[in-house]
Amino acid sequence: MKSPLFHSIKIGNVTIPGNLFLAPLAGFTDKAFRSICIDRGASFTYSEMVSAEALARDSEKTRKLMERAENENLLGIQIFLPNADTAKRAVPELLKANPTVIDINCGCPVPKVVKNGAGSALMKKPEIIEEIIKTISGETDIPVTVKFRTGWDLNSINYLSFAEAAVRGGASLLTMHGRTRSQGYSGEADWESIKKLKSEFDVPVIGSGNIFSAEDAKRMLETTGVDGVLFARGAMGNPFIFERTKNLLMGNDSPSPNSMDVKIKTAWEHLSLAVHYKGEQTACREMKKQLCSYTKGEKGSAALRNRIVRAETLEEYREIFKEYLL
User: Fold this and answer.
1) Rounded to the nearest 5 degrees, what angle is found at the Cα of 46, between the Cα atoms of 104 and 17?
2) Are residues 226 and 291 in the same domain?
3) Per-residue pLDDT at 26
4) Rounded distance, CA 148 to CA 179, Å?
5) What are phi and psi of 269, to 5 degrees?
């Protein structure tokens, strides 16, 4: 019997087949990694964060961030921007990518994003997110969603009024990371605020923060009542978390922890996909941090990571990985 904890989610006029989401993470959630996660049970994936201003200026590099992986039938494109004017100029290029969902980033705490009035800086001005969503929704029937935090800092917790403005503008789904901008990724995520958000709004709510295992995801769903969970850092080097969570939510036997052999084979598959999409030179350079994350905590992983960061070609990676395969 299907567990109600694992279920489809309707976002506007789109139905997502499950409720396990991969967060948009700059430098990590590229086509190769999203493809790996989809094959291992992710219900929905987001692009890396896209600059709406760069999109409006027809940046080729930015357009590439919006390309789908070959197994990616559904794709959310997350953009960051400071105002509705930028949204208006970016929408024509954005629509060319045919996203399933358009997500507005209102949670990124990085200074270079915030100083331009984007990311979590929008938490200070809820009226702007309302204008942004209205502007985009006026140009397309693609659902517009928003990802945000509990507030700018502990003295300005305003997630409820912010969410109200977003829904008033036409947001079809709310995703909240249970930390303030000033917290960054430190401390514990505030799941009580996520629970409160869910209780106040009829649109679907996705919870994020402190989800590093299948058990964490199940506990969030049970204790907060959210419609789904968003895996961020917990999925890095651990695409297996989606399948494990789905099995747990559906009451199936959970597989034993993945062996070093499985992790190395998956890391090689990941690298091979990156080479397919980006070419050998770029993939071998950019993949180092991703590949290192697969073996974190494993016996002998420090020595392995030390070799990985020095590898420059696919053949060098192949020789390193061969030594760790059973």
Assistant:
1) 110
2) no
3) 87
4) 9
5) -60, -40
HSE-up (13 A, CA, CB side) for residue 247? 13
- Same domain? For 94 and 57 the reply is yes
The verdict on residue 2 lying in a domain is no
What is the CB neighbour count within 10 angstroms for residue 231? 25
CA proximity to 205, closest of 240, 166, 169, 251: 166
In this prediction, residue 254 carries a pLDDT of 65
Kindly report the backbone phi and psi dihedral angles of residue 200, in degrees, each rounded to the nearest multiple of 5, phi listed first: -95, -15
Q: Is the pTM of this model over 0.90?
A: yes
Q: How far apart are alpha carbons 218 and 236 in whole angstroms? A: 19
DSSP designation for 157: B
46 close to 77: Cβ distance less than 8 angstroms: yes
pLDDT along the chain (326 residues), means of 10: 80 97 93 97 96 92 94 96 97 96 94 93 95 97 97 92 97 96 86 97 96 96 98 95 95 76 91 95 89 82 86 92 75
Which amino acids are annotated catalytic? 108
Q: Which helix (H) or strand (E) holds 92?
A: helix 84-96
Are 129 and 160 within one domain? yes
Distance (Å) of CA 166 to CA 91, 171, 216: 18, 5, 28
E strands in 123-218? 144-149, 174-177, 205-208
Task: Say yes or no: 27 and 129 in one domain.
Answer: yes
- 78 in the same domain as 51: yes
Instruction: Assign residue 285 the CATH number of its domain.
Output: 1.10.1200
User: Residue 83 is part of a domain; what is its CATH number?
Assistant: 3.20.20.70
Q: How many domains does the chain have?
A: 2
Looking at 249, 280, 308, the residue that finishes a domain is 249
Question: What does the pLDDT read at residue 291?
Answer: 84
Domain range holding 314? 260-322
Domain contains 3: no
Sort residue 234 into left (φ over 0), alpha (ψ -120 to 50) or beta: alpha
Distances (CA, A) of 87 to 94, 134, 199, 288: 9, 10, 30, 34
pLDDT for residue 1: 42
